[in-house]
Structure formats: C-alpha cells, structure tokens
C-alpha cells in the first residue's frame, strides 16, 4: 500500500483525529507530533494497534476481520489453527501461550470482527481517545528533554495495548471475546524447550531430546481445509471465573487494567500436552472451558503450535550467539528455510 508522502503519521493523525472529532488545527498538530515520534521511535506504531481498524478502514472494507501481531514471531501453519467457528461467533479472538489466568488481548495475535462498534473500542482508552493529543505532546517533550541532556538510552513512554484496551474491550456491552491457547513463547531463560520451523509448521520440542526432522516434516503436511475446522475440541460446560486485579498476573500493566482469573482450574499433569483451557467473555463475565487438542504429540514430546513469539529469548541474543543472522541469506531464496530457535539464536537446518 502506497500511503504517499505523508506516510503512516499522516494516516494515523487524520483517521484518529477524524474519529475523535478534532478540529483541523488540532489534527495538524497531531500529525506533526506523530511524525516526530515515529521518526524518533518507530516502535511506537505498536501503541496504536487497537485503532488499526479505524486507521486502515478504507483498505480493509472488503474483509470480514482485521487484526494485529508482533514482529518478533515465527508464524506457523496458521490456517490449521484458525477456526471458522471462533471467527463466526466471537467479536475478538486472541491467542495465548497458556497463561490463561491472565485475561488480556495479546499483542502477538488479536483478530477483530470488522464492524464499526468493534473497531472503535480503542476510543475508550484515554491515551488513544480524549487524551491522545496530550499524550503525544508529553512524549515529544520527553524525547526533547532527553536529547537536550545528551541522553540516548532512556525509558520510553509506551502505553501497552494489552492493558487499557483489553480492559475497555471486556467492559464494552455485548462484546464476545475468546482467548485461545495456541501459541508458543520464549519466556524462560535458560529454557528446557527448543523451536523447530519445518515445512511451514512451528514445533516446540524438549531441549536435549533427539528430534527427527523428517518426522516433523511428514507431520507438518496437514492439508488446508476451506471450512477451517481447527485443532481443538471443546469439552464440557463453561466454568464461571472469578476476576480480580490482585491475582498476580499482568504485572507490567497498571493495576486498574489487570484482570486475573483467581479460580482457573488446572488439567491433570498426565493430560497437559493434550488438554487445556480457553477463556471466553460472555455478557460481561468470563468463563473457562476445557479443550482437547486433536493434533498428535510425538513420542519425544514435540508438538505443533500456531506460532512462536521470541519475547525474552531475543533479548539475550548478541555476542556469542547466532541471533537472526543465519536467516538473512536464507530468506533470499525461493524456498522457505528450515531452522531451529533456541536461547542461543537461530540455526539453519541442512
């Protein structure tokens, strides 16, 4: 998409300003501030993820859904995991890594029904809505203050979309949300896990176990079904959840936005590879429901997921590690490479 000379800053400023009913003068200031900040800190784009449905409205008019993800991800066989039923019955669908007690919309994968009421939920967050211009001006002032002091590395003023936006979406009347356990994440350092990307599929395997890449390859060839049946079978009734801000989850977000399920059940240890819980929002209340994965778990413990989020692993890649360098040359070829991801970086498979 060619956004023209104004780029993202102009598009963001115009569309958000329009939805907020800003006068032209205010919208112009908003665009200038947005351009300044995106040039200084491109990652700020992520703060406006919840507004993408409004910002890119003209480009997504023919689509039933819109969504966002992160950049530090390895995408797997997504059409295997996306379910037609969840897209048809939910307003918002997000994929978690199993931290089901934390009730928030994940930045790694959140999909919205493309309707105006859903696409405007972002306006309920002060830093995106009524206080958008004030928040941007404070960001600009902070950057200029740091630069005037010659400080290059400083804490950024970043408002996570996983905080206020999740809370506002869950508080909106009639909104239906599903939080499904479908992703892998590089959270623990050191880690007992390793990731394999083979034949377009993402596999998580126990570190130290012998892994037959050909076996992964043969088990990664599931056909794409147009009806998107998914790979999770719902089991039993929905269980009401008690929600509290003091449940111990989401400590990176302001306490007023935290939503923690304090009575989330656990599957038996012997079933944890195949049985899990997804959470749902119905009529303003959260529920949990058991599911069984219909995908095989290999004898060595390898199992397939929708995608892998690098999260903490990438933060330690640097001197003495492979990092992402091996992929730079491999991605210039027509064939998708096979590789592993560990706490030491990315390694191509021959």
Characterize the structure shown.
It holds the Pfam family DUF6625. This protein is α+β, with helices and mostly antiparallel strands. 26% of the residues lie in helices and 23% in strands. It has a domain at 1-64 and 125-157. It is built from eleven helices and 17 strands. It has a seven-stranded mixed sheet, with no helix packed on it. A five-stranded antiparallel sheet has the order 14-8-7-16-17. Strands 2-15-6 form a three-stranded mixed sheet, with no helix packed on it. Strand 16 (339-342) and strand 17 form a beta hairpin. Helix 1 packs across helix 2 (24-40) and helix 2 crosses helix 7 (132-148).
Quickly list its features.
single chain; alpha+beta; five-stranded antiparallel sheet; 11 helices; DUF6625
Low-pLDDT residue spans: none
SSE pattern, N- to C-terminal: HHHEEHHEEHHHEEEEHEEEEEEEHHEE
* Structure class: alpha+beta
Query: Which percent band covers the strand fraction?
Result: 15-25%
- Main sheet makeup: 7 strands, mixed
Gap between N and C termini: 36 Å
Helical segment count? 11
The overall strand count is 17
Percentage of residues in helical conformation? 25-40%
- Rg calc: 21 Å
Mean pLDDT: 92
Shape: globular
Main β-sheet, spatial strand arrangement: 1-4-3-5-12-13-9
